[in-house]
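Example for tutorial group B:
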């Protein structure tokens, strides 16, 4: 996977995290549990992609 594709995926994941965070702020309490799970998964994906990008840049 090229650095450009990794960077694009990283950008999209950041956008996804920000979107979930904004939606969570105005969501009813009963929906926040599910949103917290989604946010946790999105942040994990973001961290993983950042590690991949860092590894590719270091080479």
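The residue assignment follows.
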């Amino acid at each position: 996977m090229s650095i450009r594709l990794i960077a694009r995926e990283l950008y999209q994941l950041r956008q996804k995290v920000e979107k979930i965070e904004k939606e969570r702020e105005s969501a009813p309490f009963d929906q926040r549990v599910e949103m917290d799970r989604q946010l946790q998964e999105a942040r994990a994906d973001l961290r993983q992609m950042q590690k991949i990008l860092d590894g590719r840049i270091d080479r």
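The chain has a mean pLDDT of 93. Compare this with the pattern of hydrophobic and polar residues in the output above.
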